[in-house]
## 1
Amino acid sequence: MKPKHKNVINVERLKEILADLTLFDDIFMSQVFDNNIPAANLLLRVILGKKDIKVISVTGQKEFSNPLIGGRNLKLDILAEDSEGKHYNVEVQRSTAGADERRARFHSSMLDVRMLKSGQKFKKLADSYVIFITEKDYFGENLPIYTIDRMVKETKKDFYDGSHIYYVNGAYQGEDEVGKLMHDFREKKVENMYNKELADSVRHFKKKGDGKVMSSKWDEFVKDMQKEAVKEAMEKAERKLEKEKKEASLLATVTSGIAYGVEKEQIIERLCKEFKLTNSAAEKKYEKYAVKMA
């Protein structure tokens, strides 16, 4: 018989999930920024320190297929393009492993390979920006932003290939624009956010509940429940197997002892010592398995 009020419990659980989300949850962040040009403009202008950026398109959870057979595909949290044709990939990373430098390189290369059409000159390749917003300070230098651009090592001069990588310290708590932006990324409550462009969008998804977000988080919740069910089943199977192994060992101890003429009291004593049984429990096991020898 199915438990009553199952849907009510699930909806309440879903509300808890949504209330607990921040912009460091990549699924949620991607939905908030998807087709949200004002929010994308704010994000890029603050991080890059450029007030003249004009985003013309922004997509959340954009998937790139690798043109190589067997090559690794890539799903971007945010992909944006501005009025000058520059491409921006923004990723939120909660774990240090997810922000590996070679991953940033891979993201950069995947942006580049899709910007030139057949026959176009390489000079037409637009600038690309890969931005990792990390929940912790990845480089540990307590800076708000780390900018990675290529340079000629011997001359210390910039190598202008148009490729740029930024690491934003999500733990930064300064009173400047970057500090306030990162505060908003960490914040669960809309009323505590500084930036209206973000607050309005987060409020829409948290309070009104957009269908796509509700669906994606609900699917995630269901998957988590399924994982728990599988984990519980596996643990139950392991406990059953351990119990069967223990019973087999008990049987072997009793029957082999009897076969070799060991006294009952000695077998019971051994059961108590090896299997940590009480004298009464050991005696019951002896009687149970001694019958098999009769």
## 2
Amino acid sequence: MSQTTKRPPLGRGLTHASDGVFRNIILALAMVIALIFVLSVIELTKGGLPALQAFGLDFFTKSDWNPVEKVFGAASMITGTLMTSLIALAISVPLAIASALFIAEYAPRWLADPVGYLIELLAAVPSVVYGLWALSAIAPLLAKWQLTYFTGEDPAKLETFTKCSELWASGTTNFQCFFVPSAADGRGFALATLILTVMILPYTASVARDVIRLVPRDQREAMYALGATKWEVISKAILPYARAGIMGGVLLALGRALGETLAVAMVIGDSQAPLLSLWGNSNTMASTIANQFGDAQDLLHRSSVITLGLTLFLVSVIVNLLARVVIRKLTPAGIK
């Protein structure tokens, strides 16, 4: 008979000691993250305190931003941040989910892997490259279209533009005029939204592809056994199971869009005036910080820019908290 040699058991005291050391290391690392968060809030609040004391809630509700007269209001920047992010999200999410479904469910392996790699590669491109691409390739096309609109021979378009120009001059707009070109340089809100759409698409697409592939094969086969079509399998077996992960990717993309700085700053136009046309110049909190922080020598001006950073920081925190709540609600009960 062969005898097996048993390894002597690890001493109880050593086991407890190693567990305690490991627990303390993990706790210390977690506390470092919490400490960085608290210190960031404290420093941003300290830097933004002069602006908050000078303007109070008016800083968040008014749109006047004039460093010369030392009047600062961030309403237009907050609106610009939310509008560019949400519109870019609304455009990119259907494209991202469609591409994820194609890669995971339709494309053969020899095609799915290269396409998936190319989509993920979009997330690795530096934002400055996106900005340069937008200025050199997309902006001239938009400018050409806008100039054609201005100089076109259609009397109706010319009359519409004339009426809209009068409204814009008075600081107002309407639904029709919001979609009429207000400039002919290609830059502005629409270009910033378009470039954001391209930048955030890979985040949702990559996460959606991975969670779709994680759907148990039994669910697919059970639906096919019941005579379901490909679309019925996707809509009733795959997407409901993967919806929590997909929503996580959507909210990750939203957080990326809210904080995008350099590419948006290069193309949005840096105008503090309220947005009167989809094609007009605008601003976001991140782009204003990038454009003005280095030149903000006055105490109140610098404090106002720092307060923008604090606002953007808090908005990002709120988005992450909402993400946790939404994902918890959408996660199937069996895998919570």
